[in-house]
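Bumping with the actual sequence this time:
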Amino acid sequence: MWSKYMVFLLLIAIQNELSYGQLSRKFFRKDYTFIDDINNFYKINPISKTWADAKVKCVMEGATLFYPEDEEEAMAVIAFWNATMPKVQNIWVGVAAWNVREIYETIDGRPVSEVYDNWAFNEPNNADSEEGCVVLQKDGTLSDENCSSNYGYVCKKTLATLQWNNECNLPVAGYKYNKQMDRCYKFHLTPANWTEAYTICHAEQSYLAIINSQLEDEVLINITAAAPKDNIEGSYLRGAVHLGFHDKNGIWETIKGVPLHDSGFGHGWGYTQPDGKGDEKCGSMFYTGELNDIGCWQRMFFICEHELVAPNVDFNPSFSTNEIPNLIESSQFRKARYFRKDYVYIDHVNNFYKISTLPKSWAETKSKCTSDGATLFFPEHEVEAEAVMGLLKKQPGIQKIWIGVAAWNAKELYETIDGRSISDVYKKWALNEPDNAGGNENCVVMQRDGTLKDENCDIRYSYICKKTLATVHWDSICGLPVTGYKYIEDMKKCYKFHLTPMNWTDAYIVCQAEQSHLAIINSALEDEYLVNISKMAPKDDVTGDYLRGAVHLGFHSNNGFWETIEGVPLRDSGFGDGWGYTQPDGSGQETCGSMFYTGQLNDISCWQRMFFICEHDVADRSVRDKNKTARYLARIANVRSYVTRGRFESYILTTIMTILVLSVI
């Protein structure tokens, strides 16, 4: 008997472990707070919405629009409300006369008299016969209001209704684990437009599915084939499902900001697709697996994707560089921690940062950091936020900086530039923020005190670019912390064909940010190499609105005289006679330089978006050999992450490799 009792206890323990400790941890979502006294989770939303929109938003998150069951719950939520959002005066509650006028019921169909019904004096009064929804006021009384008014609201999840999807580590039903992809997917059988689908996936702590390989495409085809979609009636577009990519300013990219041609399945367009000519800006997949552009308003099925996160290792602020052997902390290794001259390395967070004091809009700052091979900074955690605030102290004139967080795919869904919910990173909002004032504050700033605030994306602020040490990939041949450059021995130079079309000025800036310059043809031999580079580039896979047949190069018309970007007259450059037939023919209107794919020079309007080639002059081979030690050491610069993540075997292997490298050198 005793042994059976022990087995029973063991089974309970295993169940708790498999459920990720929900009974003990009392966890629903990172953005919800558990209030012990009443055994429920709550989330206060200060961004005002109509009653119906508030109700829908809570349902999307697997919760319900809050209403108090009794006075104890009402007082507990008001106390929470006062502590977190004191400026919010009224909140919608899940009570309305939504079936019959003036008969107030909860969202689950109970008369308000059966729950908390502490009405304010002379309420409800249905003023002007237009007040059918209910708010809770700060004094704990209820009042009826026009359902179209905009108020903050609270979403609620009861502990009793929390059902954990153990397989996918989510409090959401319907997700299925796929072993081949090591992630979970959910086929949604309620048709929605693209924005709604994006919002639903986000609310489920997932994202609209992105195809990153041929294998994943086949997985999604099978998921679609198995879904009981033929049973769904109604008015919606059949034959395709919404996916996580869209047209951003003429460039097709995933919702994580990766150009579609770099996503691993950028060549997967269906026959003649994309064919929307700018009117179909959202991405979908035919049931047969080919990509398709679609009107964002089209209602269709959609697939959400959820990545399984490895067990979290908390960032350890007390981590010391003394934990790394002296061998790795040698002066040579410290010198190897290099990205660019204009970036500062902060040791205890293992990242490079650059403060840009010239104010720009949010979109411009994001683009500028990307041009540097970096990203617009956002804090991963409080330690990093404090480190960057230390940098800001040296710039007393800067009060706010843009960070890489915005509601850039769907309104009021604040995400990092790499597609993570802000609830997964640093989220120290200022009091009563975000508030989306005026309905147009979709981007986020960090203030000098470390708090976050939403702002209009067009306002110009300073910003910080960030490069993580782990993502510095040193090109040892070309001597650059940039990938994609190819060394040409005959020219003693490196070249990179850029597959993201840009205008001439933007192309110039990108090359400069990569510590290179727009390519200049100095001989017939170099012209032949650029023709071959252009021929070999997978440019035919790149869709979108841009000029084909030529690439931007590093020459232009300066006051009527054609010269290279280095100020050398084109006729003296070594290839000044290389113009195409009848070129230049722009009559002063086409003042930027390009090369036809066949090698002839051509004048072009500077605003034309095209591919372009960057060129990097390589130092003398003997000089590069002297720098070999630093380059080899740079390859193992992520040894810290091995230690902090517990990858001890990798750390030992890396240490052995370092010893071998040093012994050879």
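The tokens above came from a reply further down the thread. The two ends are 70 Å apart (CA to CA).
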